[in-house]
C-alpha cells in the first residue's frame, strides 16, 4: 500500500523534489517582448473582403507591450471609426474620484524602443500618435529602397517621439502632411 508523501518521512528523502526551474512560468506581459513586424508596405490588407476588418485592432494584437519590433512597423489605413472599440482606462480626477476615459490612440506602442526595419505611417486619420519610448530605427529594411522613416498622406497634427535619437540606415520621407506641427523645424540629418 502506497503512502502519501510526507515532508517528515525519512523514506521520501531519496525522491526528487520539484525545482522552481521545472515549474511552468506564466508569461509576464509587462516584460520586454520582441515582436515580428509587418511587410505590407502601403497596401491595404483585408483578410476577407466580405467581413469587417479593423486594422487598428490587428496592430494592437501584434504589438501590445512590444519593446523591439523585428521588421517593420506599418501604421496604415487607420480612420477614426476603427478607434471606437478601443480600451478605456481608470484615472483619478482632481477631486480624487475614479473615472473612465478612452485611452490615447496607439497606446499599445508605449513600450516600443526599437524597430529593426522601417516605420511607415500612411493614410492615418488621427490627430496624434505617441511613441514615447522609441529611441532607434535601424533601417535594415527600407520602404521604397530609400526610407526607414516615412510619414505620408495623413491628418496628423502631432507625432510625439521624445526619446527618439537615431536612424542608423535610410532616409526620412515626410510628405502630404498639411496639419503636422513642427515637422519643418526638425533637422533629420542630426538623427
From TrEMBL:
Residues 65-188 form the Receptor L-domain domain. Residues 1-51 are annotated as: Disordered. Residues 1-31 have a biased composition (Basic and acidic residues). Pfam families: Recep_L_domain. This is Receptor L-domain domain-containing protein. It comes from Acrobeloides nanus. The lineage of its organism: Eukaryota, Metazoa, Ecdysozoa, Nematoda, Chromadorea.
Amino acid at each position: 500500500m502506497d503512502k502519501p508523501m510526507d515532508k517528515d518521512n525519512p523514506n521520501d528523502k531519496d525522491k526528487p523534489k520539484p525545482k522552481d526551474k521545472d515549474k511552468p512560468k506564466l508569461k509576464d506581459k509587462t516584460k520586454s517582448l520582441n515582436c515580428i513586424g509587418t511587410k505590407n508596405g502601403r497596401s491595404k490588407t483585408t483578410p476577407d473582403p466580405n467581413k469587417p476588418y479593423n486594422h487598428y485592432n490587428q496592430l494592437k494584437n501584434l504589438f501590445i507591450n512590444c519593446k523591439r519590433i523585428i521588421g517593420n512597423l506599418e501604421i496604415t489605413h487607420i480612420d477614426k471609426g476603427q478607434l471606437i472599440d478601443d480600451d478605456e482606462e481608470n484615472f483619478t480626477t482632481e477631486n480624487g474620484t475614479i473615472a473612465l476615459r478612452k485611452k490615447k490612440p496607439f497606446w499599445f506602442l508605449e513600450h516600443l524602443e526599437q524597430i529593426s526595419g522601417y516605420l511607415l505611417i500612411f493614410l492615418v486619420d488621427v490627430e496624434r500618435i505617441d511613441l514615447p519610448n522609441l529611441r532607434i530605427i535601424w533601417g535594415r529594411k527600407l520602404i521604397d529602397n530609400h526610407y526607414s522613416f516615412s510619414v505620408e498622406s495623413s491628418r496628423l497634427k502631432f507625432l510625439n517621439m521624445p526619446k527618439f535619437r537615431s536612424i542608423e540606415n535610410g532616409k526620412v520621407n515626410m510628405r502630404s502632411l498639411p496639419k503636422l506641427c513642427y515637422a519643418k523645424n526638425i533637422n533629420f540629418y542630426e538623427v
